[in-house]
User: Which sequence fits this backbone?
């Protein structure tokens, strides 16, 4: 609650500030800057939190402005209805644009959003019947909180500011709650590592779209306020300059922070007006300031604030770390770390073939794995082991053949759908969410069984609070199990290699999966750490988990596994007990060779 | 009707060649550094203004003015790479996107301060009497511009293909780490690339500026169309971008002639979006490696 109170105090201070300088021009400048904060907050959701490089995104501010102005003039809607309706129109258009754009990756996605924004600009200029054409829409009716008679001399500027500031407060309050819920964690996860996120059961497109549309609605809301405050909308508000200004505000204020967009909007909304003394060179100066911002303070103004706070905390005035909760006997409670997604699971693979442009990585591979087994998957480098994992977990579709889990065909399903059945994996190359802390990494992994209903998150319903409490317990237990409790507030990217590998195991367990695929989990671990890992896998087996492990450490495989499957050149050449494998001529020839320890 | 079509196709080819020139400038930079240079449109605009400055203020002839404009724009490009791109290469790629956007604001405003907001005209040494081939109407100036654009594109392609520096540029674009291990001086090649990219767009600006006018905001639209062409033509292919440029010019010409002048600028983006939706990875071979 103190958090919300602090926010409210800041916002009220902001709103009251211009009262000290009751000059209409100052009022106008401050109000416009506050209104632009909506565009910046909206952009922050998709660009900052969800990490999607939607360069054309600020156009939805202008879309909201147009929609609201047109609804109030041509559809004669009251202003109080036109503004939210305009925001919904912006959201609807963003959905139409988002679906095709999210099929693209990286630079292509960014370019497509720019192209779409320009298409909107051209339409606004040319579809005169709808948009009133290049001259824009004059005489947009103003927004009144109170009829003039009952306003007691409170000016329209002040009324607007009250409405705008309280709306911003509500938006930030709601956004804060969403961010501290499985939805916000899913956004960060997709930003940090989309493949890992989807193998933990997060459907990337759904959350990307959610961020895109939510951001567009918030931006559009600001656009509506703008149209009815300024009283005029033109294609300029859809143009390139506006898009750039909103980006400047976000980056200079600080991305992925709640305060950053607001700070950036106010500072960079007011700054250009101060530069009016040099009217002719305004953009030049703005450009120079932006360049300096980017080079000198990439984390923005909010980042500097954070660093100051961290420094203060280090000097003993406050503490970042709460005491570590004591978790004992976690080894015995391994099955209670997370609720199970599925009770039993047997995997059956039939005649599986996978080809890449004529290269056959897997050919007619068939085998089955029973519940509660620990199976070693071995074979020389390039034999197709990781490809097999990728097909089972849905990263790659099979060329032919089938994969059944619990009797259900799962071949060709998406990774997040397969994860939802209770199959999870780790990666050959360590894969974590680098900017998120160890604890947050584990919390992301609880996605499949946590409560991700946005309304429950907004009102903090009982179900939501219960689920989040369970998420917190899971994080503590999973980290305690792998001995990472002390590092839980450290970003995963700066953990040591060994600790990252442990974290991966904690993440896998937190998903609630009972079928776990480990891709070379012992690679790079020393003898002691490997021994720990073996102990952990044995405990998983006793708790009823099924484990398939790709491994080159033959000593480990021989001692740990109930059964060994050997793959060579994409074909299964052996399936049986470790003892038989050690004497099977083809296996010895293909893999074991003279020495048996080539880890 | 048919005559109009012919005329629009020819006009379109002409404009298309210049689009291709602009897009190639963009492509070398995008290909090497994987960054979207938002100031490329302003380099194009500067090409136009430098040409204007050389021919009107300095009184140089038309052809030397174009060459001077290319050299001067290349200089601006190299400077820009030093100040706004190189310090940010280790940061997330959107940082460079924004820094180049800042440069575009600076350059546009600077041009306005120096030359004013009004369009300026580059005087042409060619007579305005038309050359008439069958139903088609041409001026010697347009033919000349087309020829210069072609020569520039062909020499650029030859440079990339057969010179040591050209090979180094291609190597760096293909695999940066491997290129570094082969002893390629990435910083130097990056500078050169930026210079070349700037010069190509500068040439486009000088040529189109001579046909129409030069003004401070003239670079915005060509920048966006350039992106569309780079995406459509394939990120790494000179011929692909060239053909896409010509096709875009023709499509725009026909749209202007038969549909509506207002929607001409929609053609590039609509086509690009369709292409992207059919081939989400882009048309290029590089798209596969996940650019």
Assistant:
């Amino acid at each position: 609650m103190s958090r919300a109170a602090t926010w409210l105090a800041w916002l009220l201070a902001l709103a009251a500030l211009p009262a000290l300088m009751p000059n209409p021009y100052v009022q106008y400048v401050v109000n416009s800057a506050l209104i632009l904060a909506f565009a910046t907050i909206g952009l922050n959701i998709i660009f900052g939190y969800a990490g999607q490089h939607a360069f054309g995104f600020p156009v939805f501010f202008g879309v909201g402005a147009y929609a609201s102005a047109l609804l109030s003039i041509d559809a004669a809607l009251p202003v109080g209805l036109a503004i939210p309706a305009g925001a919904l129109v912006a959201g609807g258009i963003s959905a139409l644009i988002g679906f095709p754009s999210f099929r693209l990756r990286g630079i292509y996605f960014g370019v497509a959003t720019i192209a779409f924004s320009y298409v909107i600009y051209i339409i606004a200029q040319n579809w005169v019947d709808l948009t009133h054409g290049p001259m824009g829409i004059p005489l947009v009716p103003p927004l009144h909180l109170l009829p003039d008679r009952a306003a007691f001399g409170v000016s329209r500027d002040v009324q607007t500011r009250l409405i705008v500031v309280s709306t911003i407060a509500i938006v930030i309050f709601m956004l804060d709650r969403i961010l501290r819920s499985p939805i916000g964690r899913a956004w960060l996860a997709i930003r940090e590592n989309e493949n890992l996120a989807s193998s933990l059961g997060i459907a990337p497109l759904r959350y990307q779209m959610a961020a895109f549309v939510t951001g567009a609605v918030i931006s559009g809301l600001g656009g509506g306020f703008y149209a009815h405050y300024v009283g005029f909308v033109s294609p300029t508000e859809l143009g390139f300059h506006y898009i750039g200004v909103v980006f400047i505000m976000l980056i200079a204020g600080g991305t992925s922070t709640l305060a950053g967009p607001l700070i950036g909007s106010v500072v960079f909304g007011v700054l250009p007006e101060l530069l009016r003394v040099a009217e002719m060179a305004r953009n030049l100066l703005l450009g120079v300031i932006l360049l300096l911002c980017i080079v000198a303070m990439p984390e923005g103004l909010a980042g500097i604030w954070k660093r100051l706070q961290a420094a203060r905390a280090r000097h003993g005035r406050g503490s970042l770390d709460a005491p570590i909760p004591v978790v004992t006997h976690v080894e015995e409670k391994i099955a209670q770390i997370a609720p199970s997604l599925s009770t039993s699971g047997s995997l059956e693979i039939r005649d599986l073939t996978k080809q890449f442009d004529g290269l056959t990585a897997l050919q007619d591979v068939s085998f089955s794995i029973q519940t509660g087994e620990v199976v070693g998957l071995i074979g020389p480098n390039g034999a197709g082991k990781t490809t097999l994992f990728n097909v089972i977990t849905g990263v790659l579709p099979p060329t032919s053949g089938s994969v059944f889990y619990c009797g259900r065909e799962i071949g060709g399903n998406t990774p997040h759908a397969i994860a939802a059945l209770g199959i999870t994996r780790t990666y050959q190359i360590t894969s974590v969410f680098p900017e998120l802390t160890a604890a947050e990494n584990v919390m992301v992994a609880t996605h499949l069984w946590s409560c991700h209903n946005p309304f429950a998150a907004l009102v903090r319903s009982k179900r939501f609070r219960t689920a989040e409490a369970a998420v917190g317990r899971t994080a503590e237990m999973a980290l305690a199990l792998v001995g990472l409790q002390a590092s839980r507030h450290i970003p995963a990217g700066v953990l040591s290699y060994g600790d990252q590998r442990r974290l991966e195991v904690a993440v896998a367990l937190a998903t609630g999966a009972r079928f776990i695929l480990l891709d070379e989990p012992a690679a790079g671990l020393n003898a002691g750490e490997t021994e720990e890992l073996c102990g952990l896998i044995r405990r998983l087996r006793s708790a009823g988990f099924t484990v398939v492990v790709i491994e080159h450490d033959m000593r480990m495989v021989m001692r740990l596994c109930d059964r060994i499957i050997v793959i060579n050149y994409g074909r299964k050449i052996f399936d049986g007990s470790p003892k038989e494998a050690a004497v099977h001529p083809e296996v010895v020839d293909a893999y074991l060779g003279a020495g048996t320890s080539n880890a | 009707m048919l005559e109009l079509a012919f005329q629009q196709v020819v006009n379109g080819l002409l404009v298309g060649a210049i689009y291709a020139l602009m897009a190639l400038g963009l492509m070398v930079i995008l290909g090497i550094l994987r960054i979207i240079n938002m100031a490329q449109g302003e380099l194009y605009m500067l090409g136009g203004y430098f040409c204007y400055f050389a021919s009107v203020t300095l009184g140089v002839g038309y052809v030397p003015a174009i060459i001077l404009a290319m050299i001067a724009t290349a200089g601006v490009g190299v400077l820009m790479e030093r100040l706004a791109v190189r310090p940010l290469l280790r940061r997330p790629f959107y940082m460079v996107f924004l820094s180049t956007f800042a440069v575009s604001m600076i350059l546009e405003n600077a041009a306005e301060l120096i030359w004013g907001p009004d369009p300026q005209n580059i005087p042409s040494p060619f007579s305005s009497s038309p050359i008439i081939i069958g139903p088609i109407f041409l001026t010697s100036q347009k033919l000349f511009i087309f020829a210069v654009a072609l020569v520039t594109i062909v020499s650029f392609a030859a440079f990339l293909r057969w010179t040591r520096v050209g090979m180094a540029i291609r190597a760096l674009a293909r695999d940066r780490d491997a290129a570094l291990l082969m002893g390629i001086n990435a910083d130097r090649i990056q500078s050169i690339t930026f210079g070349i990219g700037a010069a190509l767009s500068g040439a486009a600006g000088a040529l189109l500026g001579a046909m129409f006018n030069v003004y401070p905001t003239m670079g915005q639209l060509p920048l966006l169309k350039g992106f569309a062409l780079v995406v459509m033509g394939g990120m790494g292919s000179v011929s692909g971008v060239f053909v896409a440029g010509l096709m875009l010019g023709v499509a725009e010409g026909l749209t202007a002639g038969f549909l509506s002048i207002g929607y001409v600028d929609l053609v590039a983006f609509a086509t690009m979006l369709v292409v992207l939706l059919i081939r989400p990875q882009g048309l290029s071979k590089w798209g596969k490696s996940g650019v």
Summary: The two ends of chain B are 44 Å apart (CA to CA).
